[in-house]
TrEMBL record:
Keyword Transmembrane in record: yes
Family assignment from sequence similarity: Belongs to the OmpP1/FadL family.
Source organism (scientific name): Bradymonas sediminis
The protein's name in its UniProt record: Uncharacterized protein
Subcellular location: Cell outer membrane
Length: 414
């Protein structure tokens, strides 16, 4: 019984606490949800011409006309590495490719009513990390994946007589997580734990976009927190021929993860053929404070029904984004951008599942349009500042993360 309690407390709950995966913004956000925005620092709250209005600011639909369709994919190629505190061989995560898609569909200014309606699909939180099976931190984390699919319907209304549009919408989020780690049961003897769960959550969206001047646009968007109720199972391998066979038995469990509130304030300015955009984002990562796991004991009076909470204690964090677009011709545009994302993870809880730190990125891109069709492409490079871990939540040392991001989107009606 004590060994079982020890295992679940140290492995099962700790695994779920480390559940956020390596993503391309601070915390575990993925802010690249269109090739247009990705090339301009992944910000578009104040851009009235951003094609993925569902994600960046649905109020921009109220300043547009007609049918809009925009679909695409972002290819993420991250890598993290670890250098031991006392010196030794550098260890890197396995190369993996993540292709989260994005989509937006809307009809703007329906029947000249000022009302617009749209729906978007994004993967705004997630990705994954895989360390070598035999690395020194295998009892902290071997691999994990987190995916959140957000279906986001919105309605916008342009107020008559004003260059002002307001919008409201819903978030319907499905989350899934899988994780693998090892439990040491003796010298060079391990049991592999495979943990997975899925669940749904719901939230809201509110946004405004205002053009006080023909050249100036101001946009503000709020996306609410979303609580995911996750249910899943733990499966073990390697315990069959050991005295711990009955201890490491498969068991269902459930927990809750709360995705954060976000606020984005953007400013756009059109100067002849040059469009400039600046944005400040505020993410309320305080929602990621602790996780409590409840186990289904199936009536076993000796089994542990609930485990004590494990603290995350993340902080709220800002991100600063700038971007520019220059129209070389009526059909061809070039874009440039950059951003600085502040990490929400305190020293006390940072761990190898997400060895994050403040992140700096730069991006470039192009866009081409022909009649009602458009194609956009972008490339970004992301560098996280090195992070030292010396809190006992993983092997002590210096961790670093870098990533290459490619995005391609196609549109109709713009």
């Amino acid at each position: 019984m004590n060994l079982r309690k020890s295992f679940y407390t140290a492995s099962f709950v700790a695994a779920l606490v480390g559940l956020p995966a390596t993503a391309m913004a601070a915390g575990f956000q993925n802010s690249s949800q269109s090739a247009t925005a990705a090339a301009m620092g992944s910000g578009a709250a104040g851009n009235p011409n951003e094609p993925n209005a569902s994600f960046y600011n649905p109020a921009s639909m109220g300043l547009s006309e007609g049918l809009k369709v925009y679909i695409g994919d972002t290819i993420l190629l991250p890598r993290s590495s670890y250098e031991p505190a006392g010196g030794g061989e550098k260890v890197s995560t396995e190369d993996r490719l993540f292709p989260p898609p994005h989509a937006h569909l809307s009809y703007d200014n329906i029947a000249d009513s000022g009302v617009s309606a749209g729906v978007g699909l994004t993967f705004a939180y997630g990705l994954g990390i895989t360390w070598p099976d035999d690395w020194v931190g295998r009892t902290s984390i071997q691999s994990q994946d987190l995916q959140t699919v957000n279906i986001n319907p919105n309605v916008a209304y342009r107020i008559p007589g004003l260059d002002l549009s307001v919008a409201a919408g819903a978030q319907i989020v499905h989350g899934s997580v899988t994780l693998k780690k090892s439990v040491a049961i003796g010298p060079d003897q391990f049991v592999d734990a495979h943990i997975g769960g899925t669940g749904f959550g719901f939230g809201g969206v509110a946004a405004v976009m205002y053009q006080p001047l023909k050249e100036l646009t101001i946009g503000l968007q709020y996306r609410s927190r979303v609580k995911l109720d996750l249910e899943g199972d733990a499966h073990f391998e390697g315990e069959e021929n050991t005295p711990f066979y009955t201890t490491f038995r498969d068991n269902p469990g459930s927990t809750e993860i709360t995705l954060p509130d976000t606020i984005a304030l953007g400013f756009g300015y059109q100067l002849d053929k040059l469009f400039l955009h600046a944005e400040v984002d505020y993410t309320m990562w305080r929602t990621y404070d602790k996780i409590v796991l409840t186990l289904d004991t199936d009536g076993d009076p000796d089994a542990l029904a609930q485990l004590p909470p494990i603290e995350g204690n993340w902080d709220d964090a800002f991100a600063f984004r700038v971007g520019a677009q220059y129209d070389v011709t009526d059909a061809f545009a070039v874009r440039l951008g950059g951003n600085y994302d502040m990490t929400p993870i305190p020293d006390e809880t940072v761990n190898p599942s997400l060895p994050g730190n403040d992140r700096i990125s730069g991006s470039v891109g192009v866009g081409y349009s022909y009649e009602s069709f458009r194609a956009d492409a972008a490339y970004s490079i992301v560098h996280a500042l090195p992070r030292e871990i010396a809190n006992g939540r993983g092997p002590s040392g210096t961790y670093s993360t870098d990533a290459n991001i490619f995005a391609l989107s196609l549109g109709y009606g713009f």
